[in-house]
């Protein structure tokens, strides 16, 4: 049965103005109409290869005054929503090309998804990574079943080498793009969210340069219910999508290619298809600060026991930052699309987030170096129920009077109110105490 919607006209109009040019050596990306039927076909074809991830009511709802449902795409096998588009891309390839194999050149979530699903489909897969790639990423990609080759010191070196190998050996060089096939696969997220959460008012997606998830899902959601508000969220440091929408074409001269913390959110705007669909179907695009992303990661870890990266947390960050007050009291779904946070960043991110959330603070004070003075300080901290994380004493380089000690103390508190209470108690006893700003 053909499902007809007036939103197909919007999709057709959005794509009719796209220039017919592509210099990629990857799978052909014909700029045809992305129909609802294409997304439905993708959902049927990939249903046995990817997880139908839960979209669950969150305890964060009370904190932000709305009914929040989290679409947990980080539970995919490779920890990323990119599997949906990649699997549909690979299964849509001609059989003779599947026998020859595919090659990619990056350490992104896209490459990880290609490595895993190509191996599962018994398609030869090669991944070229620069020598600066973290050993953990190389190991993971090999475990997914890919032949990993380290080459060059930059991503550009790896891409050049991959293209040369593709030409010499008949491999298909793949890089993330906005072909109708890839967008249809990503758009299946929109179908699932609509099915899993009745009476939706809004859905929040990560945006940035790689806005294929936002564009594809918007096409599905707006077809099913034009009144659902679709919102994209990107970083203030890399407002690639907003600048591209304003310019009317993908921005190519950004000096922000794939920041190690933000990942794909900081990449270049990769295609006119996604950009035009976003401009036509997405209701709002907002930008958030890095501080809000970190606090969002902390909230998801505490309330959902979910360890996600910046790309996964950036949707919730719009609520943390108070950028969407119009959603108060509404039913909102947030797509948590990626959970590939590298271990060396995990501790840094959480420690910084606790400080930004006013739950870890540091102060210094000077008092007499006499027996019992230190115990009096500890008594105050115990009475105020502050947990001491670190305490240091300095006697030699104290610039005040002789026979004094400078103490620097790091403590953990419950929240901002508790921190203020502790600060007042310390200033009452030690008027010269210096509170170190975050």
The number of strands is: 14
Which shape, going by the Cα principal axes?
A: globular
What is the gyration radius calculated from CA atoms? Answer: 25 Å
C-alpha termini separation: 59 Å
Average pLDDT rating: 88
Reported for the largest beta sheet, the result is: 6 strands, mixed
Class of the largest domain in CATH?
Alpha Beta
The fraction of residues assigned to DSSP E strands is 15-25%
Helix content: 40-55%
Tally of individual helices: 17
Alpha-beta classification: alpha/beta
The CATH architecture of the largest domain can be named as: 3-Layer(aba) Sandwich
Question: Any low-confidence stretches, pLDDT <50, length ≥5?
Answer: 1-31
The quaternary state of the protein chains shown equals: single chain
Indicate how many domains the architecture comprises.
Answer: 3
Strand arrangement across the biggest beta sheet: 1-2-10-7-8-9
GO biological process, one term: L-threonine catabolic process
Keywords: Lyase, Pyridoxal phosphate
Organism: Heliornis fulica (sungrebe)
Protein name: L-serine deaminase
Keywords:
438 residues; alpha/beta; Rossmann fold; Alpha-Beta Plaits; 3 domains; four-stranded parallel beta sheet; 44% helix; disordered N terminus
What do you see in this structure?
- This protein folds into three domains: about 35-80 and about 180-255 and about 260-355, Rossmann fold, CATH 3.40.50.1100; about 85-175, 3-Layer(aba) Sandwich (Rossmann fold); about 360-435, 2-Layer Sandwich (Alpha-Beta Plaits).
- Helix 4 (about 80-90) crosses helix 6, helix 4 crosses helix 9 (about 180-195) and helix 13 crosses helix 15 (about 345-355).
- Strand 4 (about 125-130), helix 7 (about 135-145) and strand 5 form a beta-alpha-beta unit.
- The longest helix has 17 residues, at about 180-195.
- It contains 17 helices and 14 strands.
- Mean pLDDT is about 90; it is low at about 1-30.
- The strands form three sheets. A six-stranded mixed beta sheet has the order 1-2-10-7-8-9, sandwiched between helices. The protein has a four-stranded parallel beta sheet with strand order 5-4-3-6, sandwiched between helices.
- The relative contact order is 0.12.
- With about 450 residues, the protein is an alpha/beta fold.
